[in-house]
Design goal:
The complex is a heterodimer of chains A (339) and B (285).
Chain A (H helix, E strand, L loop, with lengths): L1 H13 L2 H19 L2 E3 L2 E3 L10 H15 L3 H9 L12 H34 L2 H4 L3 H4 L6 H41 L10 H35 L4 H20 L3 H18 L15 H16 L2 H23 L5
Antiparallel strand pairs in A: 1-2
Chain B lengths: L2 E12 L2 E12 L3 E5 L6 H8 L6 E6 L8 H4 L3 E4 L11 H11 L5 H9 L14 H13 L5 E5 L7 H15 L5 E5 L3 H4 L5 E6 L2 E7 H7 E6 L4 H6 L4 E4 L4 E6 L3 H5 L2 E4 L3 H13 L1
Parallel strand pairs in B: 3-7, 3-8, 5-6, 6-7
Antiparallel strand pairs in B: 1-2, 1-4, 8-9, 10-12, 10-13, 11-12
Helix pairs in contact in B: 4-5, 5-6
Classes of the chains: A mainly alpha (339), B alpha/beta (285).
Protein backbone atom coordinates (compact mmCIF):
# COMPACT_ATOMS: atom_id res chain seq x y z
CA UNK A 1 0.00 0.00 0.00
CA UNK A 2 2.83 2.32 0.89
CA UNK A 3 4.24 1.72 -2.57
CA UNK A 4 0.96 2.78 -4.08
CA UNK A 5 1.09 6.05 -2.16
CA UNK A 6 4.58 6.63 -3.55
CA UNK A 7 3.37 5.92 -7.04
CA UNK A 8 0.69 8.57 -6.65
CA UNK A 9 3.21 10.94 -5.17
CA UNK A 10 5.35 10.41 -8.21
CA UNK A 11 2.42 11.50 -10.40
CA UNK A 12 2.04 14.71 -8.40
CA UNK A 13 5.78 15.38 -8.75
CA UNK A 14 5.56 15.00 -12.49
CA UNK A 15 2.29 16.82 -13.06
CA UNK A 16 2.69 19.91 -10.95
CA UNK A 17 -0.27 21.58 -12.66
CA UNK A 18 -2.49 19.50 -10.37
CA UNK A 19 -1.64 21.77 -7.47
CA UNK A 20 -0.25 24.86 -9.21
CA UNK A 21 -3.43 25.54 -11.21
CA UNK A 22 -5.74 25.64 -8.17
CA UNK A 23 -3.17 27.77 -6.34
CA UNK A 24 -3.24 30.29 -9.20
CA UNK A 25 -7.04 30.28 -9.20
CA UNK A 26 -7.01 30.92 -5.44
CA UNK A 27 -4.69 33.88 -5.89
CA UNK A 28 -6.92 35.32 -8.60
CA UNK A 29 -9.97 34.81 -6.41
CA UNK A 30 -8.31 36.70 -3.59
CA UNK A 31 -7.83 39.66 -5.93
CA UNK A 32 -11.37 39.45 -7.26
CA UNK A 33 -12.86 39.11 -3.78
CA UNK A 34 -11.30 42.36 -2.68
CA UNK A 35 -11.72 44.42 -5.85
CA UNK A 36 -14.76 42.86 -7.51
CA UNK A 37 -17.96 44.72 -8.31
CA UNK A 38 -21.48 43.56 -7.81
CA UNK A 39 -24.02 43.75 -10.55
CA UNK A 40 -27.54 44.58 -9.68
CA UNK A 41 -29.54 44.33 -12.86
CA UNK A 42 -27.78 46.41 -15.46
CA UNK A 43 -26.41 48.86 -12.96
CA UNK A 44 -22.82 48.11 -12.23
CA UNK A 45 -21.76 49.68 -9.01
CA UNK A 46 -18.56 49.33 -7.11
CA UNK A 47 -20.05 47.60 -4.14
CA UNK A 48 -17.99 49.65 -1.70
CA UNK A 49 -19.16 52.94 -3.14
CA UNK A 50 -21.77 54.73 -1.06
CA UNK A 51 -25.00 55.31 -2.90
CA UNK A 52 -25.37 58.83 -1.64
CA UNK A 53 -22.21 59.65 -3.57
CA UNK A 54 -23.51 58.34 -6.90
CA UNK A 55 -24.47 60.75 -9.70
CA UNK A 56 -28.19 61.43 -9.95
CA UNK A 57 -28.65 59.57 -13.23
CA UNK A 58 -27.14 56.38 -11.87
CA UNK A 59 -29.15 56.67 -8.70
CA UNK A 60 -32.35 56.81 -10.72
CA UNK A 61 -31.42 53.63 -12.58
CA UNK A 62 -30.62 52.07 -9.26
CA UNK A 63 -34.00 53.01 -7.88
CA UNK A 64 -35.67 51.14 -10.75
CA UNK A 65 -33.62 48.03 -9.99
CA UNK A 66 -34.32 48.32 -6.31
CA UNK A 67 -38.00 48.60 -7.03
CA UNK A 68 -37.84 45.35 -8.94
CA UNK A 69 -36.20 43.70 -5.97
CA UNK A 70 -38.04 45.31 -3.09
CA UNK A 71 -41.37 46.29 -4.54
CA UNK A 72 -43.21 48.57 -2.18
CA UNK A 73 -40.24 48.73 0.21
CA UNK A 74 -38.14 50.37 -2.47
CA UNK A 75 -38.65 53.88 -1.22
CA UNK A 76 -37.74 52.95 2.32
CA UNK A 77 -34.60 51.19 1.17
CA UNK A 78 -33.62 54.06 -1.03
CA UNK A 79 -34.20 56.50 1.77
CA UNK A 80 -32.03 54.46 4.09
CA UNK A 81 -29.30 54.61 1.52
CA UNK A 82 -29.62 58.27 0.82
CA UNK A 83 -29.15 58.96 4.46
CA UNK A 84 -25.93 57.00 4.35
CA UNK A 85 -27.24 54.20 6.52
CA UNK A 86 -25.76 50.89 5.50
CA UNK A 87 -22.85 51.27 3.15
CA UNK A 88 -23.19 49.06 0.09
CA UNK A 89 -25.56 47.51 -2.32
CA UNK A 90 -25.44 44.19 -0.54
CA UNK A 91 -26.78 45.64 2.68
CA UNK A 92 -29.92 46.62 0.80
CA UNK A 93 -30.95 43.06 0.24
CA UNK A 94 -33.13 41.25 2.74
CA UNK A 95 -31.20 38.84 4.95
CA UNK A 96 -32.33 35.58 3.32
CA UNK A 97 -31.60 36.97 -0.12
CA UNK A 98 -28.10 37.90 0.95
CA UNK A 99 -27.55 34.42 2.33
CA UNK A 100 -28.83 32.90 -0.89
CA UNK A 101 -26.51 35.13 -2.91
CA UNK A 102 -23.49 34.17 -0.84
CA UNK A 103 -24.52 30.50 -0.95
CA UNK A 104 -24.71 30.61 -4.73
CA UNK A 105 -21.30 32.28 -4.89
CA UNK A 106 -19.82 29.57 -2.66
CA UNK A 107 -21.41 26.82 -4.72
CA UNK A 108 -20.09 28.35 -7.91
CA UNK A 109 -16.59 28.17 -6.41
CA UNK A 110 -16.99 24.38 -6.37
CA UNK A 111 -18.09 24.40 -9.99
CA UNK A 112 -15.18 26.68 -10.91
CA UNK A 113 -12.59 24.43 -9.24
CA UNK A 114 -14.10 21.32 -10.77
CA UNK A 115 -13.89 22.88 -14.25
CA UNK A 116 -10.26 23.87 -13.69
CA UNK A 117 -9.22 20.51 -12.25
CA UNK A 118 -11.49 18.62 -14.63
CA UNK A 119 -9.52 20.00 -17.57
CA UNK A 120 -6.31 19.15 -15.78
CA UNK A 121 -7.51 15.59 -15.20
CA UNK A 122 -8.40 15.38 -18.90
CA UNK A 123 -4.91 16.28 -20.09
CA UNK A 124 -3.25 14.37 -17.26
CA UNK A 125 -5.01 11.14 -18.22
CA UNK A 126 -4.15 11.61 -21.90
CA UNK A 127 -0.50 12.13 -21.00
CA UNK A 128 -0.15 9.54 -18.25
CA UNK A 129 0.65 6.44 -20.29
CA UNK A 130 2.03 8.22 -23.34
CA UNK A 131 4.64 10.77 -22.20
CA UNK A 132 7.06 8.20 -20.82
CA UNK A 133 6.77 6.12 -23.96
CA UNK A 134 7.55 9.18 -26.05
CA UNK A 135 10.71 10.08 -24.10
CA UNK A 136 11.57 6.40 -23.52
CA UNK A 137 11.71 6.80 -19.74
CA UNK A 138 9.20 3.94 -19.72
CA UNK A 139 12.32 1.76 -19.97
CA UNK A 140 13.49 3.13 -16.66
CA UNK A 141 10.11 2.61 -15.00
CA UNK A 142 9.98 -0.90 -16.38
CA UNK A 143 13.41 -1.63 -14.96
CA UNK A 144 11.93 -1.26 -11.48
CA UNK A 145 10.14 -4.08 -9.68
CA UNK A 146 6.73 -2.47 -10.15
CA UNK A 147 3.92 -4.26 -11.90
CA UNK A 148 2.18 -2.58 -14.80
CA UNK A 149 -1.13 -3.03 -13.00
CA UNK A 150 0.14 -1.02 -10.02
CA UNK A 151 1.45 1.70 -12.30
CA UNK A 152 -1.73 2.06 -14.32
CA UNK A 153 -3.98 1.86 -11.26
CA UNK A 154 -1.97 4.61 -9.56
CA UNK A 155 -2.43 6.81 -12.59
CA UNK A 156 -6.12 5.99 -12.72
CA UNK A 157 -6.52 6.76 -9.01
CA UNK A 158 -4.70 10.04 -9.47
CA UNK A 159 -7.09 11.25 -12.16
CA UNK A 160 -10.28 9.68 -10.86
CA UNK A 161 -9.90 10.20 -7.11
CA UNK A 162 -6.92 12.34 -6.13
CA UNK A 163 -7.68 15.22 -8.50
CA UNK A 164 -11.36 15.44 -7.39
CA UNK A 165 -10.14 15.50 -3.78
CA UNK A 166 -7.70 18.27 -4.65
CA UNK A 167 -10.65 20.12 -6.20
CA UNK A 168 -12.60 19.64 -2.96
CA UNK A 169 -9.82 21.02 -0.78
CA UNK A 170 -9.20 23.86 -3.21
CA UNK A 171 -12.90 24.74 -3.04
CA UNK A 172 -12.79 24.92 0.74
CA UNK A 173 -9.76 27.19 0.54
CA UNK A 174 -11.49 29.27 -2.12
CA UNK A 175 -14.44 29.76 0.21
CA UNK A 176 -12.10 30.94 2.94
CA UNK A 177 -10.38 33.30 0.53
CA UNK A 178 -13.62 34.75 -0.79
CA UNK A 179 -15.16 34.97 2.70
CA UNK A 180 -12.10 36.73 4.06
CA UNK A 181 -11.72 39.04 1.07
CA UNK A 182 -15.43 39.81 1.06
CA UNK A 183 -15.44 40.50 4.79
CA UNK A 184 -12.56 42.94 4.46
CA UNK A 185 -14.30 44.71 1.64
CA UNK A 186 -17.62 44.89 3.48
CA UNK A 187 -15.96 46.01 6.69
CA UNK A 188 -14.14 48.77 4.88
CA UNK A 189 -17.45 49.95 3.47
CA UNK A 190 -18.99 49.97 6.93
CA UNK A 191 -21.21 46.94 6.36
CA UNK A 192 -21.71 43.92 8.60
CA UNK A 193 -19.02 41.46 7.41
CA UNK A 194 -20.71 38.53 9.14
CA UNK A 195 -22.88 37.75 6.14
CA UNK A 196 -19.87 36.20 4.41
CA UNK A 197 -19.62 33.70 7.26
CA UNK A 198 -23.25 32.69 7.32
CA UNK A 199 -23.22 28.99 8.27
CA UNK A 200 -26.00 28.14 5.84
CA UNK A 201 -24.12 29.69 2.96
CA UNK A 202 -20.84 28.02 3.96
CA UNK A 203 -22.58 24.69 4.31
CA UNK A 204 -24.12 25.07 0.87
CA UNK A 205 -20.66 25.60 -0.60
CA UNK A 206 -19.15 22.62 1.20
CA UNK A 207 -22.04 20.35 0.21
CA UNK A 208 -21.74 21.35 -3.43
CA UNK A 209 -18.02 20.60 -3.36
CA UNK A 210 -18.61 17.22 -1.71
CA UNK A 211 -21.33 16.39 -4.19
CA UNK A 212 -18.97 17.18 -7.05
CA UNK A 213 -16.41 14.72 -5.64
CA UNK A 214 -19.02 11.98 -5.52
CA UNK A 215 -20.18 12.73 -9.05
CA UNK A 216 -16.60 12.83 -10.32
CA UNK A 217 -15.69 9.45 -8.87
CA UNK A 218 -18.92 7.60 -9.63
CA UNK A 219 -19.90 9.18 -12.90
CA UNK A 220 -16.77 10.51 -14.56
CA UNK A 221 -14.18 7.83 -13.71
CA UNK A 222 -15.17 5.78 -16.80
CA UNK A 223 -14.16 8.80 -18.89
CA UNK A 224 -10.81 8.80 -17.11
CA UNK A 225 -10.46 5.12 -17.95
CA UNK A 226 -11.24 5.85 -21.58
CA UNK A 227 -8.60 8.60 -21.75
CA UNK A 228 -6.01 6.33 -20.10
CA UNK A 229 -6.78 3.67 -22.66
CA UNK A 230 -6.21 6.17 -25.47
CA UNK A 231 -3.00 7.23 -23.74
CA UNK A 232 -1.77 3.64 -23.53
CA UNK A 233 -2.78 2.89 -27.10
CA UNK A 234 -1.79 5.97 -29.07
CA UNK A 235 1.36 5.58 -31.19
CA UNK A 236 1.25 9.38 -31.46
CA UNK A 237 -1.06 12.20 -30.35
CA UNK A 238 -3.27 10.57 -27.70
CA UNK A 239 -5.56 13.59 -27.92
CA UNK A 240 -6.55 12.74 -31.48
CA UNK A 241 -6.83 9.05 -30.64
CA UNK A 242 -9.20 9.92 -27.83
CA UNK A 243 -11.30 12.50 -29.62
CA UNK A 244 -11.45 11.34 -33.24
CA UNK A 245 -13.14 7.92 -32.77
CA UNK A 246 -16.25 9.29 -31.03
CA UNK A 247 -16.44 12.26 -33.41
CA UNK A 248 -16.05 9.98 -36.43
CA UNK A 249 -18.65 7.63 -34.96
CA UNK A 250 -21.05 10.51 -34.54
CA UNK A 251 -20.58 11.73 -38.10
CA UNK A 252 -20.84 8.27 -39.65
CA UNK A 253 -23.99 7.56 -37.69
CA UNK A 254 -25.58 10.85 -38.70
CA UNK A 255 -24.71 10.52 -42.38
CA UNK A 256 -25.07 6.79 -42.96
CA UNK A 257 -27.89 5.82 -40.61
CA UNK A 258 -29.36 9.21 -39.95
CA UNK A 259 -29.75 8.68 -36.21
CA UNK A 260 -27.97 10.35 -33.33
CA UNK A 261 -27.58 7.65 -30.71
CA UNK A 262 -23.85 8.23 -30.21
CA UNK A 263 -24.51 11.95 -29.82
CA UNK A 264 -26.99 11.42 -27.05
CA UNK A 265 -24.92 8.71 -25.39
CA UNK A 266 -21.93 11.06 -25.19
CA UNK A 267 -24.02 14.03 -24.09
CA UNK A 268 -25.58 11.85 -21.40
CA UNK A 269 -22.20 10.73 -20.09
CA UNK A 270 -20.49 14.11 -20.29
CA UNK A 271 -23.24 16.57 -19.39
CA UNK A 272 -25.76 14.28 -17.70
CA UNK A 273 -25.31 15.52 -14.12
CA UNK A 274 -25.57 19.15 -15.21
CA UNK A 275 -28.71 18.43 -17.18
CA UNK A 276 -30.20 16.66 -14.22
CA UNK A 277 -29.69 19.84 -12.19
CA UNK A 278 -30.93 22.24 -14.82
CA UNK A 279 -33.85 20.18 -16.05
CA UNK A 280 -33.65 18.53 -19.44
CA UNK A 281 -35.55 21.32 -21.13
CA UNK A 282 -38.72 19.34 -21.77
CA UNK A 283 -41.02 18.25 -18.96
CA UNK A 284 -38.84 18.50 -15.85
CA UNK A 285 -38.36 22.12 -14.83
CA UNK A 286 -34.93 23.45 -14.04
CA UNK A 287 -33.78 23.88 -10.49
CA UNK A 288 -34.58 27.33 -9.11
CA UNK A 289 -32.74 28.71 -6.14
CA UNK A 290 -35.38 29.56 -3.60
CA UNK A 291 -33.79 32.20 -1.46
CA UNK A 292 -36.39 31.86 1.26
CA UNK A 293 -35.78 28.13 1.52
CA UNK A 294 -32.11 27.40 0.95
CA UNK A 295 -32.02 24.02 2.69
CA UNK A 296 -34.99 23.01 0.55
CA UNK A 297 -33.14 24.03 -2.63
CA UNK A 298 -30.05 22.10 -1.56
CA UNK A 299 -32.09 19.01 -0.75
CA UNK A 300 -33.79 19.20 -4.13
CA UNK A 301 -30.40 19.49 -5.80
CA UNK A 302 -29.01 16.46 -3.99
CA UNK A 303 -32.16 14.48 -4.71
CA UNK A 304 -31.98 15.18 -8.41
CA UNK A 305 -28.34 14.24 -8.63
CA UNK A 306 -28.71 11.12 -6.55
CA UNK A 307 -31.63 10.07 -8.69
CA UNK A 308 -29.59 10.64 -11.82
CA UNK A 309 -26.40 8.98 -10.58
CA UNK A 310 -27.88 6.01 -8.74
CA UNK A 311 -29.08 4.54 -12.00
CA UNK A 312 -28.07 1.48 -14.03
CA UNK A 313 -26.05 3.95 -16.09
CA UNK A 314 -23.63 4.47 -13.24
CA UNK A 315 -23.01 0.77 -12.67
CA UNK A 316 -22.69 0.06 -16.37
CA UNK A 317 -20.29 2.99 -16.64
CA UNK A 318 -18.16 1.69 -13.79
CA UNK A 319 -18.05 -1.79 -15.33
CA UNK A 320 -17.07 -0.46 -18.74
CA UNK A 321 -14.51 1.79 -17.02
CA UNK A 322 -13.01 -1.19 -15.19
CA UNK A 323 -12.75 -3.09 -18.48
CA UNK A 324 -10.99 -0.13 -20.08
CA UNK A 325 -8.53 0.14 -17.19
CA UNK A 326 -7.87 -3.58 -17.64
CA UNK A 327 -7.24 -3.03 -21.33
CA UNK A 328 -4.88 -0.14 -20.55
CA UNK A 329 -2.93 -2.40 -18.15
CA UNK A 330 -2.62 -5.07 -20.85
CA UNK A 331 -1.43 -2.55 -23.41
CA UNK A 332 1.10 -1.16 -20.98
CA UNK A 333 2.32 -4.62 -20.22
CA UNK A 334 2.31 -6.37 -23.54
CA UNK A 335 3.22 -3.60 -25.89
CA UNK A 336 6.70 -3.96 -27.38
CA UNK A 337 8.67 -1.00 -26.19
CA UNK A 338 10.87 0.59 -28.79
CA UNK A 339 14.39 0.54 -27.55
CA UNK B 1 27.44 -23.13 -11.02
CA UNK B 2 23.87 -22.06 -11.63
CA UNK B 3 22.68 -20.48 -14.81
CA UNK B 4 21.00 -17.12 -14.33
CA UNK B 5 19.71 -17.10 -17.87
CA UNK B 6 18.63 -20.15 -19.85
CA UNK B 7 17.37 -19.75 -23.38
CA UNK B 8 16.23 -22.67 -25.51
CA UNK B 9 14.95 -22.11 -29.01
CA UNK B 10 14.34 -18.45 -28.28
CA UNK B 11 12.64 -16.97 -31.33
CA UNK B 12 10.98 -13.71 -32.23
CA UNK B 13 9.33 -12.56 -35.41
CA UNK B 14 8.30 -9.07 -36.44
CA UNK B 15 5.82 -9.68 -39.22
CA UNK B 16 7.74 -11.61 -41.84
CA UNK B 17 11.22 -10.71 -40.60
CA UNK B 18 12.75 -12.98 -38.03
CA UNK B 19 14.75 -11.16 -35.39
CA UNK B 20 15.73 -14.32 -33.54
CA UNK B 21 15.74 -17.75 -35.11
CA UNK B 22 15.54 -20.11 -32.19
CA UNK B 23 18.74 -19.35 -30.31
CA UNK B 24 19.91 -21.28 -27.27
CA UNK B 25 22.43 -20.08 -24.75
CA UNK B 26 22.97 -19.85 -21.06
CA UNK B 27 24.60 -17.31 -18.81
CA UNK B 28 26.13 -18.76 -15.64
CA UNK B 29 26.40 -16.82 -12.42
CA UNK B 30 29.40 -14.57 -11.94
CA UNK B 31 30.19 -14.00 -15.61
CA UNK B 32 30.49 -10.84 -17.67
CA UNK B 33 29.03 -11.70 -21.03
CA UNK B 34 29.41 -9.56 -24.11
CA UNK B 35 26.50 -9.95 -26.49
CA UNK B 36 27.97 -8.73 -29.72
CA UNK B 37 26.57 -8.43 -33.20
CA UNK B 38 26.07 -6.05 -36.10
CA UNK B 39 23.08 -3.72 -36.25
CA UNK B 40 19.84 -5.61 -36.59
CA UNK B 41 21.43 -8.88 -35.53
CA UNK B 42 18.87 -9.48 -32.79
CA UNK B 43 20.89 -8.32 -29.75
CA UNK B 44 18.34 -5.85 -28.51
CA UNK B 45 15.51 -8.26 -29.15
CA UNK B 46 17.28 -10.88 -27.07
CA UNK B 47 17.86 -8.39 -24.25
CA UNK B 48 14.26 -7.20 -24.37
CA UNK B 49 13.12 -10.81 -24.06
CA UNK B 50 15.42 -11.29 -21.06
CA UNK B 51 13.99 -8.15 -19.46
CA UNK B 52 10.41 -9.18 -20.04
CA UNK B 53 9.74 -6.31 -22.41
CA UNK B 54 8.74 -8.41 -25.36
CA UNK B 55 6.84 -11.56 -26.20
CA UNK B 56 8.87 -14.48 -27.56
CA UNK B 57 8.62 -18.05 -28.72
CA UNK B 58 10.66 -20.82 -27.18
CA UNK B 59 11.83 -21.17 -23.64
CA UNK B 60 13.51 -18.52 -21.58
CA UNK B 61 14.08 -18.40 -17.89
CA UNK B 62 15.76 -15.60 -16.00
CA UNK B 63 16.56 -16.38 -12.38
CA UNK B 64 14.23 -19.34 -12.73
CA UNK B 65 11.24 -17.31 -13.87
CA UNK B 66 9.55 -16.45 -17.12
CA UNK B 67 10.52 -12.78 -17.50
CA UNK B 68 7.56 -11.92 -19.71
CA UNK B 69 5.00 -13.22 -17.26
CA UNK B 70 6.70 -12.07 -14.08
CA UNK B 71 8.61 -8.99 -15.14
CA UNK B 72 8.07 -7.07 -11.92
CA UNK B 73 9.24 -10.01 -9.82
CA UNK B 74 12.29 -10.70 -11.97
CA UNK B 75 13.15 -7.02 -11.78
CA UNK B 76 13.78 -7.27 -8.06
CA UNK B 77 17.02 -9.04 -8.92
CA UNK B 78 17.75 -7.56 -12.31
CA UNK B 79 18.99 -4.09 -13.11
CA UNK B 80 18.98 -2.57 -16.51
CA UNK B 81 20.49 0.43 -18.27
CA UNK B 82 19.23 0.92 -21.82
CA UNK B 83 21.18 4.00 -22.67
CA UNK B 84 21.76 7.41 -21.18
CA UNK B 85 18.44 8.83 -22.34
CA UNK B 86 15.93 6.88 -20.29
CA UNK B 87 15.96 8.54 -16.87
CA UNK B 88 12.81 10.68 -16.55
CA UNK B 89 13.94 14.18 -17.45
CA UNK B 90 11.46 16.02 -15.25
CA UNK B 91 12.56 14.27 -12.08
CA UNK B 92 14.85 15.70 -9.44
CA UNK B 93 17.79 13.60 -8.26
CA UNK B 94 16.41 13.62 -4.73
CA UNK B 95 13.02 12.44 -5.97
CA UNK B 96 14.66 9.60 -7.86
CA UNK B 97 16.44 8.48 -4.70
CA UNK B 98 13.28 8.82 -2.60
CA UNK B 99 11.26 6.88 -5.12
CA UNK B 100 13.81 4.10 -5.55
CA UNK B 101 14.23 3.79 -1.80
CA UNK B 102 10.47 3.51 -1.32
CA UNK B 103 9.70 1.10 -4.13
CA UNK B 104 12.79 -1.06 -4.69
CA UNK B 105 13.34 -3.59 -1.91
CA UNK B 106 17.01 -4.08 -2.86
CA UNK B 107 17.96 -0.42 -3.23
CA UNK B 108 20.53 0.75 -0.68
CA UNK B 109 20.23 4.48 -0.45
CA UNK B 110 23.41 5.05 1.53
CA UNK B 111 25.43 3.25 -1.13
CA UNK B 112 23.91 5.44 -3.81
CA UNK B 113 24.57 8.61 -1.79
CA UNK B 114 28.18 7.49 -1.45
CA UNK B 115 28.60 7.07 -5.20
CA UNK B 116 26.91 10.39 -5.86
CA UNK B 117 29.05 12.23 -3.34
CA UNK B 118 32.02 11.56 -5.60
CA UNK B 119 30.31 13.37 -8.48
CA UNK B 120 29.19 16.96 -9.01
CA UNK B 121 25.56 15.95 -9.19
CA UNK B 122 23.37 18.11 -6.96
CA UNK B 123 20.40 16.49 -5.26
CA UNK B 124 18.07 19.31 -6.26
CA UNK B 125 18.91 19.22 -9.96
CA UNK B 126 16.43 17.87 -12.42
CA UNK B 127 17.71 15.16 -14.73
CA UNK B 128 17.22 17.45 -17.75
CA UNK B 129 19.60 19.97 -16.20
CA UNK B 130 22.44 17.45 -16.01
CA UNK B 131 25.00 16.83 -18.73
CA UNK B 132 24.98 13.54 -20.58
CA UNK B 133 27.98 12.33 -18.62
CA UNK B 134 26.34 13.22 -15.32
CA UNK B 135 23.15 11.40 -16.27
CA UNK B 136 25.23 8.32 -16.95
CA UNK B 137 26.97 8.67 -13.60
CA UNK B 138 23.59 9.09 -11.93
CA UNK B 139 22.08 6.06 -13.61
CA UNK B 140 25.11 3.96 -12.84
CA UNK B 141 25.00 5.09 -9.19
CA UNK B 142 21.35 4.12 -8.96
CA UNK B 143 21.93 0.74 -10.53
CA UNK B 144 25.05 -0.06 -8.55
CA UNK B 145 23.19 0.71 -5.34
CA UNK B 146 20.72 -2.05 -6.11
CA UNK B 147 21.85 -5.35 -4.69
CA UNK B 148 20.92 -7.23 -7.87
CA UNK B 149 22.05 -10.57 -9.23
CA UNK B 150 21.98 -9.64 -12.89
CA UNK B 151 22.85 -6.37 -14.57
CA UNK B 152 21.88 -5.87 -18.19
CA UNK B 153 23.53 -3.08 -20.16
CA UNK B 154 22.28 -2.26 -23.64
CA UNK B 155 24.70 0.15 -25.31
CA UNK B 156 25.13 1.89 -21.96
CA UNK B 157 27.75 4.33 -23.21
CA UNK B 158 26.13 5.31 -26.49
CA UNK B 159 26.90 8.92 -27.28
CA UNK B 160 29.48 9.36 -24.54
CA UNK B 161 33.03 10.44 -25.22
CA UNK B 162 35.99 8.14 -24.78
CA UNK B 163 36.87 9.43 -21.32
CA UNK B 164 33.38 8.90 -19.95
CA UNK B 165 33.14 5.47 -21.54
CA UNK B 166 36.34 4.38 -19.90
CA UNK B 167 35.23 5.80 -16.56
CA UNK B 168 31.93 3.98 -16.86
CA UNK B 169 33.49 0.54 -17.27
CA UNK B 170 36.23 1.20 -14.75
CA UNK B 171 33.69 2.10 -12.10
CA UNK B 172 31.57 -0.87 -12.99
CA UNK B 173 34.46 -3.25 -12.69
CA UNK B 174 36.08 -1.84 -9.58
CA UNK B 175 32.99 -0.84 -7.59
CA UNK B 176 30.34 -3.26 -8.66
CA UNK B 177 31.60 -6.51 -10.03
CA UNK B 178 32.54 -8.83 -7.21
CA UNK B 179 32.78 -12.16 -8.99
CA UNK B 180 29.28 -13.16 -7.97
CA UNK B 181 27.19 -10.71 -9.84
CA UNK B 182 26.47 -11.31 -13.48
CA UNK B 183 26.59 -8.74 -16.23
CA UNK B 184 25.29 -8.98 -19.79
CA UNK B 185 26.42 -6.13 -22.00
CA UNK B 186 25.93 -5.17 -25.63
CA UNK B 187 28.05 -2.55 -27.30
CA UNK B 188 29.56 -1.55 -30.59
CA UNK B 189 32.78 -0.49 -28.96
CA UNK B 190 33.98 -4.05 -28.54
CA UNK B 191 37.62 -3.13 -28.09
CA UNK B 192 36.80 -1.09 -25.00
CA UNK B 193 35.23 -3.90 -23.09
CA UNK B 194 37.06 -6.97 -24.29
CA UNK B 195 39.43 -6.92 -21.33
CA UNK B 196 36.55 -7.06 -18.85
CA UNK B 197 34.54 -9.82 -20.53
CA UNK B 198 34.65 -13.42 -19.38
CA UNK B 199 32.38 -14.73 -22.13
CA UNK B 200 31.48 -13.86 -25.67
CA UNK B 201 28.21 -14.39 -27.49
CA UNK B 202 28.32 -13.38 -31.16
CA UNK B 203 24.99 -13.02 -32.77
CA UNK B 204 24.24 -12.41 -36.43
CA UNK B 205 21.01 -12.48 -38.42
CA UNK B 206 19.15 -13.90 -35.47
CA UNK B 207 21.57 -16.76 -34.85
CA UNK B 208 24.33 -17.36 -32.34
CA UNK B 209 27.55 -17.71 -34.31
CA UNK B 210 29.92 -17.94 -31.37
CA UNK B 211 29.38 -18.87 -27.74
CA UNK B 212 32.61 -19.22 -25.84
CA UNK B 213 34.50 -18.31 -22.73
CA UNK B 214 37.40 -15.93 -23.25
CA UNK B 215 39.96 -18.45 -22.00
CA UNK B 216 38.73 -21.06 -24.48
CA UNK B 217 38.98 -18.55 -27.30
CA UNK B 218 42.65 -18.12 -26.64
CA UNK B 219 43.03 -21.87 -26.93
CA UNK B 220 41.04 -22.26 -30.10
CA UNK B 221 41.84 -19.15 -32.08
CA UNK B 222 45.29 -18.09 -33.08
CA UNK B 223 46.33 -15.00 -34.91
CA UNK B 224 49.32 -15.52 -37.16
CA UNK B 225 51.56 -12.91 -38.73
CA UNK B 226 52.75 -15.04 -41.63
CA UNK B 227 56.33 -14.92 -42.84
CA UNK B 228 56.33 -13.91 -46.52
CA UNK B 229 57.76 -17.18 -47.71
CA UNK B 230 55.23 -19.29 -45.79
CA UNK B 231 52.02 -17.72 -47.06
CA UNK B 232 51.11 -20.65 -49.30
CA UNK B 233 51.88 -23.16 -46.56
CA UNK B 234 49.78 -21.20 -44.11
CA UNK B 235 46.87 -20.97 -46.55
CA UNK B 236 46.94 -24.73 -46.85
CA UNK B 237 45.98 -24.92 -43.16
CA UNK B 238 42.68 -23.13 -44.02
CA UNK B 239 42.68 -19.92 -42.08
CA UNK B 240 39.22 -18.57 -41.34
CA UNK B 241 40.32 -15.07 -42.22
CA UNK B 242 43.15 -13.45 -44.03
CA UNK B 243 44.07 -9.86 -44.45
CA UNK B 244 47.10 -8.02 -45.72
CA UNK B 245 48.70 -6.29 -42.77
CA UNK B 246 51.57 -3.86 -42.66
CA UNK B 247 54.39 -5.86 -44.10
CA UNK B 248 53.02 -9.25 -43.17
CA UNK B 249 49.80 -11.04 -43.98
CA UNK B 250 47.62 -11.69 -40.93
CA UNK B 251 45.70 -14.94 -40.74
CA UNK B 252 43.27 -16.25 -38.19
CA UNK B 253 43.10 -19.95 -37.46
CA UNK B 254 40.61 -22.01 -35.56
CA UNK B 255 41.53 -25.29 -33.92
CA UNK B 256 44.97 -25.45 -35.49
CA UNK B 257 47.63 -26.36 -32.94
CA UNK B 258 49.82 -23.44 -32.01
CA UNK B 259 52.95 -25.53 -32.51
CA UNK B 260 52.05 -26.19 -36.15
CA UNK B 261 51.64 -22.47 -36.74
CA UNK B 262 54.70 -21.39 -34.84
CA UNK B 263 56.96 -22.36 -37.71
CA UNK B 264 55.05 -20.18 -40.16
CA UNK B 265 55.36 -16.84 -38.41
CA UNK B 266 54.57 -15.06 -35.15
CA UNK B 267 51.52 -16.31 -33.30
CA UNK B 268 49.38 -14.13 -31.10
CA UNK B 269 46.00 -13.72 -29.46
CA UNK B 270 43.39 -12.33 -31.83
CA UNK B 271 41.45 -9.27 -30.74
CA UNK B 272 37.72 -9.64 -30.25
CA UNK B 273 37.16 -7.19 -33.06
CA UNK B 274 39.20 -9.32 -35.50
CA UNK B 275 37.45 -12.44 -34.34
CA UNK B 276 34.11 -10.76 -34.73
CA UNK B 277 34.77 -9.70 -38.31
CA UNK B 278 36.20 -13.09 -39.26
CA UNK B 279 33.42 -15.11 -37.69
CA UNK B 280 30.56 -12.97 -38.94
CA UNK B 281 31.96 -12.97 -42.48
CA UNK B 282 32.60 -16.69 -42.25
CA UNK B 283 29.06 -17.31 -41.08
CA UNK B 284 27.61 -15.26 -43.90
CA UNK B 285 29.60 -16.77 -46.78
Amino acid sequence: MNRFVWLIRRELWEHRAIWIAPAVVLALLAVVAVTGNINLGDVNVDSSQKISELPAEKREKLRIEIEKEFGDQADAAMERLEQGEGGTMLSLLPAEKRTALVAVVYSMLGVLMSIVLGSIAFFYALDALYADRRDRSVLFWKSLPLSDAETVLAKFATAAIVIPLVAFCATLLAQLVVATGGSIKLALAGDPAGMMWNPQALLAGVSTAALIVVISVLWYSPLVAYLLLASAWAPKSPFLWAVLPPVAGMLVERIVIGTRHIDSLLAWRVFGPFKALGGDGSDAPGLVVDSANLPGTATAMVERLVEFIASPGMFIGLLVGAAMVGAAISLRRYRDENT
Amino acid sequence: MTNLIEARGLAKRFGSTRALEGVSFSVPEGRIVGLIGPNGAGKTTALKAILGLTRFEGELSVLGQDPYRHRHRVMQDVCFIADVAVLPRWMRVRQLLDFMAATHPRFRREVCEQFLSRTDIKRDSRVKELSKGMITQLHLSLVMAVDAKLLVLDEPTLGLDLLMRKQFYDTLLSEYFDGQRTIVVTTHQVEEIEHILTDLLFIDRGRIVLDAAMEDLQERYVQLAVRPDKVEAARALKPIAERAGLGRTQMLFRDVPRETLAGLGDTGVPSVADLFVAIIQGARS
